[in-house]
Design goal:
It is a single chain. By secondary structure, the chain is of the alpha/beta class. Among the domains are: 244 residues, Amidase signature (AS) domain (Amidase signature (AS) enzymes, Alpha-Beta Complex); 65 residues, no CATH class. 40% of the residues lie in helices and 12% in strands. It is built from 15 helices and eleven strands. An eleven-stranded mixed β-sheet has the order 1-3-2-4-6-5-10-11-9-7-8, sandwiched between helices. Strand 2, helix 4 and strand 3 form a beta-alpha-beta unit. Helix 9 packs across helix 12. The chain starts with a helix and ends with a helix. 60% of the residues are buried.
Length: 472
């Protein structure tokens, strides 16, 4: 797989045409998309036109930007002006946003070529991309297995060579978990570092947009493009973002890294073994690595599935058939609302709306939502204590390698456990990165996770690059 860094360099220098790059990737799509179903929509004609415009600008002596000619796939919950944005749900049938998400505008301004909108769990609710209204995505390494979720289409697109880069969203692990299962790099940035404007909301205090890439350097390049203040997002951090690409060669000499004891409990031995190998590699590279306890992380899964469902209940109230998307006729407006939502939402989305509505209801608010917020505060404080002694933390990304399609669909609680290692970072608002680190049984990828305090992406990327080098 040609790296995004190399593609952009060659296209900007005129050594390779953007059109040739796009045709190579579209050929890969034609070869395996029917098998994998990474995309809800392939934008072949638009991609060719975009590539031709990049080549025209290069020929005219212009610099198209740091992502010149790089094919990028977009998760289908990122608004794209005039292009269907479905969130893999029937309820948004026919909706074409009147604007681009900020991250979409930024990658286009940087010279990237959008090749399609990727499949996902409906409204980002799931861990396997089996909850899509349009059918599941399959793992490129073994099509009988899931790619992870909810951004499984984006992870599969990069892993299969359909796009050099992709954007996803991470509410409870939805970038890092599929990245680990598909053997690519996935980054969940600090909450507020990347604009959420134009990201269709699931849980607004948790959602964050981030990159998928084939290498740490490619992920850093994409994050550098999309990060930074956006006045259209009231939660955006009001200061410039530092360059992650600039620190990739700095190494880990002198860094203090803690291996989180609680996040290794109940993890498959082959996954735990790769975390141990990563710890040894970082130690050999000059970091001081030791085990650390962060006990409050054990509260994360329970707190998350109260808070996220409560926010989903509120956010998804807007899909009522009255303004956009699907409308099912009824005898009166109340009947129309009910019929539209019954037909438009899938089973998992309905489950989470009902759970969240219950948690917010009179008489239960303090017992559930209030208690979950208190647990979230304990998790944030526990991380503060850990980061007083350590620069970074190390943990698994997932409890297992990719599981077979259909293996967990009948048991939502088992499926929810897929995110046990990733959710703590979302609740704290901290960054984390999944780095491929070897293979398990049957050649299935295993990722390890580096966690960092808020706005410490540069330190996180130093360690991620060192880990990647240790496998070279």
């Amino acid at each position: 797989m040609t790296s995004a860094v190399d593609i952009a360099r060659d296209v900007r220098a005129g050594a390779r045409s953007a059109r040739d790059v796009v045709e190579t990737h579209l050929s890969a799509v034609a070869g395996r998309e029917a098998e994998l179903h990474a995309f809800n929509l392939v934008l072949a004609d638009e991609a060719r036109a975009g590539a031709d415009e990049i080549d025209r600008r290069v020929a005219a002596g212009e610099d198209p930007g740091p992502l010149a000619g790089v094919p990028v796939a977009l998760k289908d919950n990122l608004c794209t002006r005039g292009i269907p944005t479905t969130c893999s749900s029937r309820i948004l049938e026919g909706w074409r946003p009147p604007y681009d998400a900020t991250v979409v505008a930024r990658v286009r301004a940087a010279g990237a070529v959008v090749v399609g909108k990727t499949n996902m769990d409906e409204f980002a609710m799931g861990s396997s991309t089996e909850n899509s209204a349009f059918g599941p995505t399959r793992n490129p390494h073994d099509p009988s297995r899931v790619p992870g979720g909810s951004s499984g289409g984006s992870a599969a697109a990069v892993a299969a060579g359909f796009a050099s880069l992709a954007l996803g969203s991470d509410t409870g692990g939805s970038i890092r978990q599929p990245a680990a299962l598909c053997g690519v790099v996935g980054v969940k940035p600090t909450y507020g570092l990347v604009s959420r404007y134009g990201l269709v909301a699931f849980a607004s205090s948790l959602d964050q947009v981030g990159p998928f890439a084939g290498s740490v350097a490619d992920a850093a390049l994409l994050l550098d493009v999309i990060a930074g203040h956006d006045p259209a997002d009231s939660t955006s951090v009001p200061r410039p973002a530092p360059s992650c690409s600039a620190v990739l060669g700095d190494g880990v000499e002198g860094l203090r890294i803690g291996v989180v004891r609680e996040l290794l409990e109940g993890i498959d031995p082959e996954v735990a073994a790769r975390v141990s190998a990563a710890a040894a590699a970082l130690d050999a590279a000059g970091a001081k690595v030791e085990e650390v306890g962060v006990p409050a992380t054990t509260l994360a899964l329970s707190a998350y599935y109260v808070l996220a469902t409560a926010e989903a209940s509120s956010n998804l109230a807007r899909y009522d058939g009255a303004r956009y998307g699907l409308r099912v006729a009824g005898d009166d407006v109340t009947a129309m609302y009910g019929a539209t939502r019954a037909a438009g939402f899938g089973a998992e989305v309905k489950r989470r709306i009902m759970l969240g509505t219950y948690a917010l209801s009179a008489g239960y608010y303090d017992a559930y939502y209030g208690q979950a917020q208190r647990a979230r505060t304990l998790i944030i404080r526990a991380f503060d204590v850990a980061y007083a002694s350590y620069d970074l933390l190390l943990a698994p990304v997932t409890p297992t390698t990719a599981f077979p399609l259909g293996a967990k669909t009948a048991d939502p609680l088992t499926m929810y456990l897929s995110d046990v290692c990733t959710i703590p970072s979302n609740l704290a608002g901290h960054p984390a990165i999944s780095v491929p680190y070897g293979l398990g049984a049957g050649g299935l990828p295993i990722g390890v996770q580096i966690l960092a305090p808020a706005l410490a992406e540069t330190t996180m990327f130093r360690a991620a690059a060192a880990l990647e080098r240790s496998l070279a």
